[in-house]
Write the structure tokens for this entry.
Amino acid sequence: MNELPSILLNAAVDEFSKLPGVGRKTALRLVLHLVKQPVENVEKFGNAFIRLRNEIKHCKICNNLSDNDICEICSNQHRNQSIICVVENIRDVLSIERTQQFNGLYHVLGGIISPMDGIAPSDLNVDMLVQRIKNENVKEVLLALNTTMEGETTCYYIHKKIYMLNVEITTLARGVSFGDELEYTDELTLGKSILNRQPFIK
Amino acid sequence: MNELPSILLNAAVDEFSKLPGVGRKTALRLVLHLVKQPVENVEKFGNAFIRLRNEIKHCKICNNLSDNDICEICSNQHRNQSIICVVENIRDVLSIERTQQFNGLYHVLGGIISPMDGIAPSDLNVDMLVQRIKNENVKEVLLALNTTMEGETTCYYIHKKIYMLNVEITTLARGVSFGDELEYTDELTLGKSILNRQPFIK
């Protein structure tokens, strides 16, 4: 697989296989697909990424990816400005938006503390968050990070940075997922879901 | 997932998810990876495909993808010019090259007969193959197509086109794969492997 009979083909396969989770076999399959497409489609394909990379911005308020200096969510006056949901990345923003259960603003950290991946607390936009809480009328900060070791560590770090700022700090409810069987639910989750039991609604 | 908060992001995800086997979730993951890369890397990425599509050629002899008018294999005078191995696409060429057991030339059909996918016999480069056999000193044509219905159909079609050309027509040996258990080998393959049994070599 190492030596393709064409320098152009090799270069294209190399580029594809730099993407996470794409091996050289998959890369070759995708590249051969592109070779069969009309020239203008392939130009559109290649230029979409170049344009994206050159023109995309980070929202100056919440650090979310955006076409403009201020993202759509931050500039929407109908959203509740007094609650900030702290997430790891834009994919988490999209997941939460899809639930249609959150009407506040976001704060995108751009990662979570992970010594293994070389991400230190200083790499996250926590100072920006502190400034927002200080300067704006923020009443609640919802920490919506993953329940992994790294997520928990990041939660503790942020908590330490903001607990004296007179703001309510909350996290997502932990419990048994819809569709989950109790038999296979881990005991930590099941235990939490018993401690935090809710009134039954008919 | 449909509505990303950025037109640029949407465009890039759209382009990625046009690739076979890439859904919008994977596309978004790959696009967000690209956003984090240096601008020059993303430009290299995008331009690799555009350059490939604009500059890649099909070998005028065997139809394989090549940087030049004649591919490396066809222009290699050390290869056996009297045997042509007929394959579906360049990936099959690469697979056979990796075995290091074939020193002849190739003929790349660019597909196999598949009414379901709208590929008719006229879409394949069979006429080019017939011309090669007529004009050059070809002694053997090895049909190395997949053992699927479409592959077999294509074999019969090519056979019909070339059997009167005074050339030996062969196909790959069918048999039990290395590492396969007889118990799970289909009866057609196992039957063939008994009929075509070989002298045991110590």
Notes: The first strand of chain B starts at residue 57 and ends at 58. Chain B touches chain A through 55 residues (CB under 8 Å). Helices of chain B lie at 7-17, 24-36, 39-55, 90-99, 126-135, 149-162, 187-195.
